[in-house]
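Example (one chain per record):
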Amino acid sequence: MNHRITLRVYYEDTDLAGIVYYANYLKFIERGRTDWLRDLGVDQSALKEREGVVFAVRRVEADYLSPALFDDLLVVESSLHQMTPARIVMDQRVLRGETVLFAARVTVACLSASGRPARIPETVRKALR
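Predicted structure:
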């Protein structure tokens, strides 16, 4: 299942040449992951409060393929690659029209309040399947 969100590139996202600063792609894909979980009915604040677990990025493999520019309308696409008892691996892309500008594989770990690895709650597992 693919999830998609649309976002606009603002001046604050760019450098003096009007090109999106490379680190901002990580912000864009974070929004994609967060909105995907929200759209699946997963409330991350409630998970922290009720189950004592949070998600943290453990690894990002990223390819910068083509620049996004000021005022571009972008789509962030997210899909599940793999899920283990304590990790979620997602493939994410940032597109302008049909052109892929950025691609990443992101590993997110489920952590307890003490920062130790924890099992992904069943509600989240079911939502992602």
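Caption: The chain has one domain: 2-128.
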